[in-house]
Each structure stands twice: as C-alpha cells, then as structure tokens.
C-alpha cells in the first residue's frame, strides 16, 4: 500500500487516553473515598497496604484534578477529536454502597466534560478502570460478591442520568479479562490471588458480565444515541512452532481474550467454556434473569494493544516474557521495549482482523503506546522538550498497520494513544515509564514542579490528526 492509498475513514476519532487513578491525584479531596489503587503503591504486583502511603505516586498523580483545563487545552491544540478518561467510582460513591452520591465528585466530572466539549472533544468514559472503592473490596471481597452488581448498577444509573447529554461513548470495565491474572487490581477481589479459588474467580467474572450487560441495557434506555462498548486487554498469541500441540496451546491461550469478548458481543457463554468449567469443577451460579440480561450486547468492542506473545506446549521452552499480564513466551523475531514488552506493530493488524472476523462489530483501539525513559532537554530556542523519535516510530508503525486493517475491511472507529500526557504506570506505579506527548515534571521520588512541556511527538501527532493519517510513513 503506498502513502496516498493509506486512508482513515472520515470522522475517525483521533485522541488520547488516561485513567483517573493514574493522573487525577487529589485522592482524599472533596469527599472522595479510598479506592483499591490508593493502597497499591507498587502497581500490579503489590504489596497491598492497609492505608495510603507516601511512596504511592498515584495519590498525587500528575495533579490532573486541579490542572485539567490546562491539559485539555493542550489536547485541543493537538486536534483531539476524543479524549478517553475514567470516572473514579469512589469519587461518586466514596464507599461504593452509600445511599447518596457525592455531589462534589459529580460536579468535577461535569466540569471536566464541559471543558472537553468546549473544544469539540468527545469524552469517551470508562465506568470502572482498575479502581473499585476500597470498602467494596474489603467488606464484600469485590466482584466475588453478587451485591456488587447492584452497587455498580446504582453507580451507572447515577452517572448516566447526570452525563447523558455530555457523553456519547462509554466503556463498562477496563481490560475486563485482566481479572484472571490481577484479581485485586481488576476486580477488587481482596482474597489473595494464591488463595482465590477458580470457582470464586469465575463467579466474580460472571457478576461483571451481568453488570456490564446491565450498563448496556440501562444506557440504551436512558441514552438512545449513546454507544456503549466493552474493553478487552488485547494480546494476540502466536504458536511458537507449527507443532500441533503448540497450535492447541495457542488456541487455549487466546480464549483468555475471546471468552470475554464472546459474552459481550454475542450475549451468551461460548461452548468451549463448558468443558473448562467441567474440568475445573466450576459451577457458575446464574440468578433468575441473568441469561436474558446477557443478551444486551455491546455496540462496539474496544481494546488495548501493546504486545503480542507466543505460546507453546513444551514446558522446557515455557520461559515467561516480562512486562504483560498474560505472560507468554517471548517471540524470537521481535525486539523489546525498556520494560520487556515486545514491539509488534503487525500484531495490531492481526488482532483487528481477528475481532472483526469474529463479530463484525465496530472496533476502537483505546490504548496503544510506548513506555520509555524520556530525557528533558532544551532546544535551540531555549524551550524544554523531549526528542522522542523512538515514540514517533512506534506509534507511526502501529498506525500504518491499523490503516492496513482498515484496507482489509475492518471497521475501526478511532484510536486513542495511552498516556497522552505522562502519568503513573498501572503495572509498575512509576513515573519514569512515560508514554505521553506531554512531559510532566514529576519524578519517582516525588520531586518536580508538575509543569507541562511539549515533546517532539506532540507536533508529530498534531500533524497526523490534521492529515487524517495521510502523513504516516
């Protein structure tokens, strides 16, 4: 495909993505309750503490709570059509099971969405992004408890009614399939992972499925023009060799993704899970009406894409790769990022085709980016910046493959780069692992001015949006 033929559809939603818990800070201001993130200072791997500790970078984040107007103005300067963010559940219901919502929390998101709309930027809102109210985690064991369906439904009704005239695009749970490997981070499950039974884990997953489908149902009733999607951690899996055993192992690994998208997009449990449940002595308890609720399927499928993995049935070759939740065997043909994530632009084209062939539903790439150590320097004019050509190349190469998928016939709604402004990493809770087009002067030891500086990639992405991707190489 030559450059002139590389076309993104008219109205393509270009933008960037953040999560409340990784950027807002203000963890104890204006009535906000504690979330699971506030007691997880070291990222995915823990340890979990009883109370917030000073070394948790997320407690201040990048102070987006107080600086959002400045940041959204910068997004508008880049030409964003959409901005993906999340609502902190414990800002709205501090304990999750409160009788009344917190008005100051609701007002903050009113103001945030108004600021986006002022610049013609559509909010894309994740309802639950890795931050269950801590009280729901400790008192109910998170999504293991069926009561969370009702608490989530109450929260959803509150925010849908409040923001129905401001938000057109919603996601129910962030990377919902990650609960398999990170039950506390993803599902607020307080039982330690090593003590959590498969029965309880998959019952928790069922509760999330029901809650997600309820959100779709309620959203369609309250906001007929809104689009509500699921969000999947997208990690394509390749067989390490053509050995049929590796092919079967790959098929089984892929079901860590497709089980979740199948239920969301088709409205029922896939047959292959019946065997899995039987072999693992799992009996999912369906409440009356659950089957009917699950039929409320999503309008589109969104996903994150950072890495691909390989799989093998050969236990001697099963050396787990670094840096991603699903592990997997490193691909000998790919290079790694500084954090051990293998860089595979063609994997994005592959998984876009996989999802579209399977469901024929619109797709939205809502996370993609390169975490790297950036060096803040002064340019010839004395302005502070970062020469992040490595990030430009990464994003360019992935967008070229997204364009290839569109040429393949895949319906892609939009693309939001992860961490469009530097933020605290979810997996490692570091600030030195930077993703953004905008450098934030804050360091892992808590020092820094929090000032914002435009990186070289800022101007590159601005040009991508202006040309609707025709400048890609």
Could you walk me through the main structural features you see in this protein, from its secondary elements to its overall organization?
It is a single chain. This protein has 473 residues and is α/β, with parallel strands linked by helices. The protein has one domain: Glycosidases (TIM Barrel, Alpha-Beta Barrel). Helices cover 37% and strands 14% of the residues. It has helices spanning 20-23, 64-78, 89-92, 103-118, 134-140, 147-163, 183-187, 198-222, 244-266, 272-279, 290-294, 345-359, 389-408, 456-466, and strands at 13-17, 82-86, 122-128, 169-173, 227-234, 237-239, 300-305, 309-311, 363-367, 377-378, 384-385, 412-418, 438-440, 452-454. The strands form 4 sheets. It has an 8-stranded parallel beta barrel, surrounded by 5 helices. The longest helix has 25 residues, at 198-222. Belongs to the glycosyl hydrolase 1 family. The active site is at 367 (nucleophile). Keywords: Glycosidase, Hydrolase. One of its GO terms (cellular component) is cytosol.
Summarize the structure.
With 473 residues, the protein is of the alpha/beta class. It has helices spanning 20-23, 64-78, 89-92, 103-118, 134-140, 147-163, 183-187, 198-222, 244-266, 272-279, 290-294, 345-359, 389-408, 456-466, and strands at 13-17, 82-86, 122-128, 169-173, 227-234, 237-239, 300-305, 309-311, 363-367, 377-378, 384-385, 412-418, 438-440, 452-454.
**CATH topology name:** TIM Barrel
Shape: globular
CATH superfamily: Glycosidases
| Helical percentage | 25-40%
Strand order of the largest sheet: 1-2-3-4-5-7-9-12
Q: What's the end-to-end separation, in Å?
A: 11 Å
Highest-level CATH class:
Alpha Beta
Strand content: 5-15%
What class do helices, strands and sheet pairing give? alpha/beta
Radius of gyration: 21 Å
Main sheet specs = 8 strands, parallel, barrel
Number of E-state strands: 14
CATH architecture, by name, is Alpha-Beta Barrel
**Count of domains:** 1
Mean pLDDT equals 95
- H/E element string? EHHEHHEHHEHHEEHHHEEHEEEHEEEH
Number of helices: 14
Instruction: Give start-end ranges of low-pLDDT stretches.
Output: none
Keywords: Glycosidase, Hydrolase
Family: Belongs to the glycosyl hydrolase 1 family.
Active site: 367
GO molecular function: beta-glucosidase activity
């Amino acid at each position: 495909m030559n450059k002139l033929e590389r076309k993104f559809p008219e109205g393509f939603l270009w933008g960037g993505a953040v999560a409340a818990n990784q950027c807002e800070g203000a963890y104890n201001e204006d009535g906000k309750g504690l979330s699971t993130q506030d007691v997880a200072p070291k990222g995915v791997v823990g340890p979990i503490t009883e109370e917030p500790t000073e070394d948790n970078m997320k407690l201040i984040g990048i102070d987006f709570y107080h600086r959002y107007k400045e940041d959204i103005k910068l997004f508008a300067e880049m030409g964003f059509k959409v901005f993906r963010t999340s609502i902190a559940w414990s800002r709205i219901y501090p304990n999750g099971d409160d009788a009344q919502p917190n008005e100051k929390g609701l007002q903050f998101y009113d103001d945030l969405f108004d600021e986006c709309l002022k610049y013609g930027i559509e909010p894309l809102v994740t309802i639950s992004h890795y931050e269950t109210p801590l009280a729901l985690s400790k008192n109910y064991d998170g999504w293991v408890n069926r009561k969370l369906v009702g608490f989530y439904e109450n929260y959803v009704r509150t925010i849908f009614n409040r923001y129905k005239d401001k938000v057109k695009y919603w996601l129910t749970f962030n990377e919902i399939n990650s609960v398999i490997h990170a039950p506390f981070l993803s599902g607020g499950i307080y039982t330690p992972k090593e003590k959590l039974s498969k029965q309880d884990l998959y019952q928790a997953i069922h509760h999330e499925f029901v809650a997600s489908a309820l959100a779709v149902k309620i959203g369609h009733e309250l906001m007929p023009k809104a689009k509500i999607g699921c969000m999947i951690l997208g990690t394509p899996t390749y067989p390490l060799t053509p050995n049929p055993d590796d092919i079967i192992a790959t098929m089984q690994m892929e079901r860590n993704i497709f089980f979740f998208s199948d239920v969301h997009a088709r409205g029922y449990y896939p047959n292959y899970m019946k065997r899995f449940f039987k072999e693992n002595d799992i009996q999912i308890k369906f409440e009356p009406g659950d089957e009917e609720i699950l039929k409320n399927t999503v309008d589109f499928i969104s996903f994150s894409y950072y890495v691909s993995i390989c799989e093998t049935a050969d236990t001697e070759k099963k050396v787990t790769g670094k840096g991603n939740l699903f592990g997997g065997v490193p691909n000998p043909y790919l290079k790694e990022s500084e954090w051990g994530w293998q860089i595979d632009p063609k994997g994005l084209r592959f998984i876009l085709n996989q999802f579209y062939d399977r469901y024929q539903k619109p797709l939205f790439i809502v996370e993609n980016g390169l975490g790297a150590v950036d060096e803040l320097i002064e340019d010839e004019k004395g302005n502070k910046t970062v020469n992040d050509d490595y990030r430009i190349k990464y994003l360019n190469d992935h967008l070229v493959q997204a364009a290839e998928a569109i040429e393949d016939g895949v319906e892609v709604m939009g693309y939001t780069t992860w961490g469009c402004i530097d933020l605290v990493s979810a997996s490692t809770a570091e600030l030195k692992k930077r993703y953004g087009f905008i450098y934030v002067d804050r360091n892992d030891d808590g020092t820094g001015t929090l000032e914002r500086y435009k990186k070289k990639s800022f101007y590159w992405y601005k040009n991508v949006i202006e040309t609707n991707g025709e400048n890609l190489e």
